[in-house]
Design a protein that fits this description.
Layout: E1 2-6, E2 12-16, E3 35-38, H1 51-65, E4 82-86, E5 93-97, E6 105-108, H2 115-118
Parallel strand pairs: 3-6
Antiparallel strand pairs: 1-2, 4-5
Length: 142
């Protein structure tokens, strides 16, 4: 696979990497480069405070990298890798950096939407007559 990346200064880099194809699932592949997970910015929903959610999220990331044969990168010092995470409800960005030195992938996890932000209340005033969610007066003999 060929991959082209662009750094913050606009310079582009091209690299190629072999992809593993696993024929049997008896021996699980592991990512060939280190992956660091950072939950410091999960301050909106706290979703990743649940150990089961963390495990599922980390396994999903590892699944992706299990099939790339990559060497670890040069060490990136703590605080030297800027990134931008979405703010609550996608309204702004949160500027972050890596909390520790890393030689592989550094993954920030952040829950960004509360249930109130993805669900609007339907009221009689906002729901047209006859639309789902609007109650009609009972009909029939009184």
């Amino acid at each position: 696979m060929r991959l082209t990346t662009r750094d913050a200064g606009g310079a582009t880099y091209e690299q190629s990497m072999p992809i593993f194809v696993q024929q049997d699932e008896k021996t699980a592949l592991q990512p060939s480069l280190p992956i660091a997970f950072d939950y410091r910015h999960d301050s909106v929903t706290g979703s990743f405070g649940d150990a089961g959610v963390r495990t599922a999220a980390e396994e999903a990331v590892k699944d992706w990298f299990r099939f790339f044969d990559m060497e670890p990168f040069d060490t990136v010092a703590a605080g030297a890798q800027p990134n931008h995470l979405p703010g609550d409800d996608w309204q702004h960005t949160v500027d972050v950096t890596n909390a520790s030195a890393c030689t592989g992938m550094y993954v920030h996890f952040r829950g960004i939407q509360t249930t109130a932000s993805t669900r609007r209340r339907r009221t009689a005033r906002s729901t047209p007559a006859g639309a789902p969610g609007r109650r009609r007066a009972p009909s029939g003999p009184s």
